[in-house]
Structures are given as structure tokens and as C-alpha cells.
Amino acid sequence: MPPPETPRTDLVDKAIAGGLSSIPLVGGVLGVFYENYMQAPYDRRLQQWQRTMTEVVNELAEKYDTLPNDDVLLDALINATRAAQATSQQEKLDALRNAVLNSVAPDAPDTDEQARFFRLVDQFSAAHLRMLARISYYQPSSLYVRPDVINTRRREWRDLLTADLSGARLISVSTDGNYTALRTSLGSRFLDFISESS
After folding, report:
1. Is 100 left (phi over 0), alpha (psi -120 to 50) or beta?
2. By CB neighbour count within 10 A (0-12 exposed, 13-18 middle, 19+ buried), where does 105 fall?
3. What residue spans define the domains of the chain?
4. Is residue 76 a contact partner of residue 98, using CB atoms and an 8 Å limit?
5. Which residue ranges does UniProt annotate as crossing the membrane (predicted)?
6. Per-residue pLDDT tens for 132-144?
7. Helix (H, G, I), strand (E, B) or coil at 141
8. Rounded to two decimals, what is the model's pTM?
């Protein structure tokens, strides 16, 4: 299957650029800014993502005689594309690609859980995904770093990542003096969903 043709949003782009250009004094500058710094890079990002999704669909077509459950796959493609448009972080793009591949696997989460997982990839940073991958499902992982080793900004960032993952019920944190975390079963399902299948 060849990659899709470049999507043209010419009318919208021209309307935006034209509307910006009509603003007195600064309009021309804003129109040029939009066309050069927003439209072209966005179009390139979207084209690259479409090529990636074409490869994914081709890979799935080779793996299965017929693509199973087209609606589930379509939902996954749409959810992943929404999230992919908002990031340049390769780790997140890889997670979204893997999630689409895993969306139609025999042991795939149901569509409601998949939708939530796509939202979490969109919401989280690559640092969230790295931290979750480092936390074990079997053995509590220490989140504590001696205060003299980690600066305040890094400690605050670690605490924010931990709170976000805990709030999403992907990890459980123990603050009984050890400050350890354990990945939950939901966290493990999420990690499996966004990881490259073996």
C-alpha cells in the first residue's frame, strides 16, 4: 500500500494566512510567520507520521490474512494520529506506533482501555514513559536519591513525574520512609501496549 497523498489543507491555510495578513501594521509579518514556521513544519510532521502509519498497516496486513476488527484499528489510527500531531519526541512517537501495532493483537486491551492509553501517551512526556519502564512490577523500585546528590529542580521534577504516574494508577508509591514505587497491573498493561512486541 503506497503512502497516502499529501493532505492539502490549502483553503484553511490560505484563510489563516490571509486573515493574519489583513491585520493592520503587523498582518503581513504574521502571515509570513504562519506559512514558514507553522504550516510547512506541521505538514512535514504529518507526512512523516502518515508514512509511519502506512508501514504499520502494511506490517499488520502481512501478519494477518485479513486485518482484524477494522473499527478497532481505525480508532487506534485516529487516536495515535491526534497525539502524534502534538509531539516531536521520538519516544512518544515510537510508543504511539507500537500501540497501533498492538491494538489488534489477540491479547490487546479492550477499546475503552486503548482509548485511555492513547490519552496517557498524549498527556505524558517521554520522561514519564522512561520512569514507568524503570519501575518494576515485581520488586519495589527505590525513588529516593540522597538530597546532596540531586538538586532541587531535579527532585521536584522526579516528584511531579511520580505524582502523575501514581495519579493515573500506573504505579503505587510507598512513603513509609523508603519512598519506593511498584508498577501496578494497569501500568504493566499500559507499558506492554506501548512497547514493541516481541
Report:
1. alpha
2. middle
3. 1-63
4. no
5. 15-34
6. 999 888 777 776 6
7. strand
8. 0.74
